[in-house]
Amino acid sequence: MRRILGSLVAVASLAWASRAAALCDVPRPIAVTPTLLAPAPVNAHVWITLAQGWRERGLCHRSFTREPCPKDSYTLGLRRAPRLGRSRPWIKVTERESPPGRYLTAPALGVSTVELTPAEPLDANTLYEVHLRSASAATDDVVSLFATGDFSDTVAPSWSGAPRGSYARSPRGIISFDACGAPRARFEAIEASDDHAAPEALRFEVRVREFDVPEDLLRVPDAVMGSVDDGRGGRALWLGSDDTMDDDGLLPADGHAVSVSLVIVDWAGNRSPERAFELRP
Fold this sequence. Notes:
Strand order of the largest sheet: 1-2-5-4
Number of helices: 1
Structural class: mainly beta
Strand content: 25-35%
Number of strands: 17
Radius of gyration: 19 Å
C-alpha cells in the first residue's frame, strides 16, 4: 500500500507541475492537505491554500511576461476518484476562508486558506479528488488527491515542549525587515503530537490581534499553515515576509507589539488548546 501511494504521489506531482507550467489563466493551489503520504480519517477536513483573490481573477503562473490572463470565477469541490460501476456525486461541504491579511499593503501578494468540511463522513479506504472548477466550465482540474483509512479521529492534538515566539532580529537585536519593509516572526519548539498524524502533517490556525482588542477564538483564523523543520530536529513556524518578496500581511510593517495565538489542527479538524504569544519590538 505504501509503495502504491508513493507512486501515485510521484505521478500526480509530475502531471500537475506540467499543467501548471502550461496554463496561464487558472489559479494554482500553493498547498493542500490531507495528502497521500498517510491515510486520512473518514471525518477529514480539507485545506487548500491559494493566492489572495483566487475566486474572481486569473493568475499567471511563474511568468510575468505574458499578456494579462482572462478573468473567470472559480470554486472548489470534492468527489471520489473514478471507479468502475460507481457514481461520483459532488460531496456536500461547507467552506470557511481566511480573511485578507490585515497589514497587507499589496493584496496581490497575499494568500487565503479555504477549509472544506464534508457534511457526512467520507467512505473508508477510498481515494478522493480535490477539484478546482471555473464558472465558464473551461476548467475542472484535479489539484490534489488523498485516501481515507478505515478510522475516525476524534482526539485533539496536544502541545509538547515549551513553544516561544519573537520577531526575527539582526545580530544587534534590532527587528529585521526585508527589502519590502516587512518583518518576520519565528515560533520555535512548537512540538505537537497527535494520535494519527505525524508532526509535519499538522496545521496551525493563526490569529493576530492588537493588545486592546479582545481575542475571539471562534472567528475565522487569519491563516492556517504548516510548520517547517528547524534544522535541529524540531519544528518551527514563520509569519510575515519571505525571500520571494511575498508578504502574508499577518504582521504590522512597523513591527509594533501584537498578540499571536496558535491552535494545532489535525486532519479531522480537531483543535488543541490555544497558545498565546506576545511579539514586541
